[in-house]
Specification:
Blueprint (H helix, E strand, L loop, with lengths): L9 H7 L8 H13 L10 E3 L2 E3 L3 H4 L1 H19 L2
Length: 84
């Protein structure tokens, strides 16, 4: 009998619908560690890196009005659950 109709594990389900290749923990942490610790990155701030390379974030990530809207929504959400 094949596993075609048998339940998949959660990881298998995610992998099936993922558009990005999976990385292990060291691979996933490598760029963050490089940017945080490498001497050439001293003084670099406010940049976006993927696989050791600086890239330009999407237009959504650069949208100041959208950022303000998200900030305000987040504050309202936190305030709504943190008050007694």
């Amino acid at each position: 009998m094949t596993r075609l109709f048998s339940p998949a594990t959660p990881a298998e389900s995610l992998e099936l619908f993922s558009f990005f290749p999976w990385k292990n923990v060291p691979q996933g942490a490598a760029t963050t560690c490089y940017v945080a610790l490498h001497p050439r990155m001293k003084g670099v701030s406010g940049k976006y890196f993927v696989d050791f390379n600086e890239i330009t974030p999407s237009s959504y990530a650069r949208d100041v009005a959208l950022a303000r809207e998200l900030w305000d929504f987040s504050n309202k959400l936190i305030n709504s659950v943190s008050k007694p």
